[in-house]
Write a structure and sequence with these properties.
Elements (H helix, E strand, L loop, with lengths): L18 E6 L4 H12 L5 E5 L13 E4 L5 H10 L1 E7 L5 H4 L3 H26 L3 E8 L8 H6 L14 H18 L13 E8 L1 E3 L12 H10 L4 E3 L6 E6 H13 L9 E3 L3 E4 H11 L5 E3 L3 H9 L7 H7 L7 H21 L4
Parallel strand pairs: 1-2, 1-4, 2-3, 4-5, 5-6, 6-10, 7-9, 8-12
Antiparallel strand pairs: 9-11
Helix pairs in contact: 1-8, 2-4, 4-6, 7-9
The structure holds 2-amino-3-ketobutyric acid (AKB).
Length: about 350
């Protein structure tokens, strides 16, 4: 049922709206994995928003599916009327490459949309009297290493270092992290009717994510999943960065697991609100070598797009995720080789086997 029509707002029994967990950007790569994971842990109260209709198996995992834009304040107002939201996973975003063609739109979505969602969280907390847990994915795009020499001299960057992003997406994510901290701790701090401590904001800085089940769109770290999916489907791939371009990555299952781990962590164990994550650091050249070892016929060439490569070069080789490991037990299952041998290659072969004649 699509709830953009107010007439379909669920009934309110005894003054109580039905409880819900809200997932924005539900149709994206992370959204697909998160909806499945929430369903697997027994959540049957998921309200999903995306600009496109949610399709496939994950659509049936939602109690409600809305087609709408997080910039639409009226739509968010209707959410306030219809649901008692106590947890928000705000995944909707315009990623780094796409954002460089429409930076102002990226700002409106990534910052304006996040502001609307944080305000919704504050209003929800005011209306139902409980705190709202707000889980926000940030990115390694918040970093700006300056030049390759600095990047190489600082191979494992901590959360509070080199925060000079060079993309609109990175600027948006860094500002949104501060907005989350503000709404959680200082929102309307001079107003007599403020609701203190209404939002429990928690943030993970995702590295480049690689999924076996979905293809990425609009990112600059996408060269890794694009290369793998092309090899599995027998399609020649021209990599838009040089073999030496290196950043941190993690598999989608590890990203989803980490997201739920942070969401479930005891607040007392959190020494910070924004956490680095990394599964492994790899160069485009090492990824190509491993891909060829699994797909010997793969046609992979390197034709660097200097502008896109400059974005990747501005990101760290790897990040220091000790705080996540110490505070809430972050422990990715997939290192570089295991990511391919245990997850990516078996899953992608199965996915592409029926499509391209590539032997399973
Ligand atoms: C992108 O490439 O923009 C994203 C990211 C690194 O956050 N995948």
């Amino acid at each position: 049922m699509n709830c953009t029509d107010p007439a379909t707002v669920p009934a309110v029994f005894g003054g109580r709206r039905p409880g819900a967990v809200l997932v924005t950007g539900a149709g994206g790569e992370v959204g697909h994995g998160l909806l499945a994971a929430l369903h697997a842990e027994g959540r049957r109260d998921v309200v999903a928003i995306d600009v496109r209709p949610l399709e496939g198996e994950v659509a049936s995992m939602c109690r409600e599916r809305l087609v709408g834009d997080i910039r639409d304040v009226q739509m968010l107002e209707r959410l306030l009327a219809a649901w008692e939201i106590t947890e928000i996973y705000h995944l909707a975003a315009l990623l780094s490459t796409r954002g460089e063609f429409t930076p102002e739109t990226a700002h409106e979505v990534n910052v304006g949309g996040t502001l609307h969602l944080l305000r919704l969280a504050a209003e929800q907390a005011r209306s139902h009297g409980r705190r709202v847990r707000f889980i926000f994915p940030s990115s390694i795009a918040v970093y700006g290493m300056g030049d390759l020499q600095t990047k190489r001299q600082h191979p494992r960057v901590r959360e509070d270092e080199f925060l000079q992003p060079i993309t609109m997406y990175g600027c948006n994510k860094l500002y949104a992290e501060h907005l989350g901290r503000y709404y959680a701790k200082h929102y309307r701090q001079l107003a007599l009717d403020r609701v203190p401590d209404a939002i429990d904001f928690r943030c993970l800085r995702y590295p480049g994510l690689i999924s076996a089940d979905t293809l990425p769109a609009g990112g600059t770290s996408d060269f890794a999943p694009e290369m793998l999916h092309a090899a599995a489907s027998g399609t020649p791939y021209r990599c838009f960065v040089s073999p030496g371009a290196t950043i941190p990555f993690m598999t989608m299952p590890d990203a989803i697991e980490a997201t739920l781990q942070l969401a479930r962590a005891e607040e007392a164990s959190l020494t910070r609100r924004v956490y680095n994550l990394s599964g492994f650091s790899a160069s485009a050249g090492r990824i190509a070598e491993l891909v060829r070892s699994f797909f010997p016929g793969a046609s992979i060439s390197f034709e660097a797009d200097r502008q896109r490569e400059a974005i990747v070069d501005s990101w760290p080789e790897d990040v220091d995720d000790d705080a996540a490991r110490r505070d809430w037990g972050f422990a990715p299952r997939h290192g570089f080789h295991k990511a391919f041998s245990e997850y990516l290659v078996p899953r992608i072969r199965a996915l592409h086997a029926g499509r391209s004649g590539v032997p399973a």
